[in-house]
Amino acid sequence: MTTVLKLSNVTKYYGSRQVLNVEELEIGAGQIYSILGPNGAGKTTMMRIMALLTRNNIGQIEVLGEKVTWDKSQLLRLRRQMSMVTQTSYMFAGPVHYNVSYGLRVRNKSVVEVNKLVKESLELVGMSDFIDYPARNLSGGEKQKVAIARVLALKPRVLFLDEPTSSIDPTSARDIERYIKFINSELGTTVILVTHNLFQARRLADHTIFMWDGEIIETGSSEDLFENAIDKRTRAFLSGEVVF
Ligand code: ADP
User: Fold this and answer.
1) Is the minimum distance from the CB of 22 to ligand 1 under 6 angstroms?
2) 147-178 tens-digit pLDDT
3) The architecture CATH gives domain 3-89+158-238
4) How far is the CA of 58 from the centre of ligand 1 (A)?
5) Cβ of residue 56 lying under 6 Å from some atom of ligand 1
6) Which end of the chain, C or N, has fewer beta carbons within 10 A?
7) Range of lowest pLDDT (2-6, 102-106, 130-134, 178-182)
């Protein structure tokens, strides 16, 4: 399996406090990973480091086959091949098509191509009727669909999802899950998902990474981890015996 992301001895401090310490993590191309663990375990920090949005203090990162030097031109090139969708996605003031086309326009795509990709992407998420609608007036679920349409238009190699459905209604959440699967299977995008929804993690992810107190304490295929976790903290968390 080709590796798209690799962390080696990655440590992150906030002030004098160590919040992340990952010895080794490899993310395989075309797979879906979920990152699980209690609040404050370091899930978002690790994801943001992988997305090159937060810089680690110690350690090596490889993204899409390149050792990360944090050089500006390298960052721009690598970030443009990755997208992130967060719990409440940021919408620019302006219509939906402006929001979906933004990333394409900064990548200097032609007007014809931009319009085609925006139209196709909105169709895929059932939001065509909203193309001229002010994006900031949409409901939470609709905004998340527009955020997914942006991803579909950009066709990133890696997609990071930070609790993408935790503030939307269950029906929209199931739609978003279908689109995530589609992006993974049709575009071959590698997906990394932070979620508090264990059912969602199990439904979507091929692999599960379990974090505790800034460290990865267990990782494996989702089926294995959910059925046969070895670490007692993982078992307690996954069985819902302990509410964190
Ligand atoms: P999780 O996503 O698992 O809830 P986070 O990665 O958000 O965990 O946070 C890990 C730890 O780092 C927490 O204790 C949090 O308070 C701390 N932290 C996160 N971001 C910052 C920041 N910008 N400044 C200081 N501390 C932070």
Assistant:
1) no
2) 999 999 999 999 999 999 999 999 999 999 99
3) 3-Layer(aba) Sandwich (3.40)
4) 17
5) no
6) N
7) 102-106
Nearest CA, atom 26, ligand 1: 14
Percent above pLDDT 70 for the chain: 99
- Determine if the pTM surpasses 0.85: yes
Distances (CA, A) of 22 to 64, 163, 192, 230: 19, 21, 16, 19
The rounded Å distance from CA 134 to ligand 1 centre is 33
Q: Are 158 and 82 in contact (CB under 8 A)?
A: yes
Ligand 1 mutation pick, 36, 43, 45, 244, max ligand atoms within 8 A of CB: 45
Q: Atom 19, ligand 1: which residue's CA is nearest?
A: 45
Domains of the chain by residue range: 3-89+158-238
* Terminal C-alpha separation, the chain: 34
Please check whether residue 132 is in contact with residue 96, taking contact to mean a CB–CB distance below 8 angstroms: yes
Residue recorded with tokens 């993974």: 184
Question: What is the pLDDT of the chain when averaged over all its residues?
Answer: 95
Rounded-to-integer distance, Cα 197 and Cα 181, Å: 16
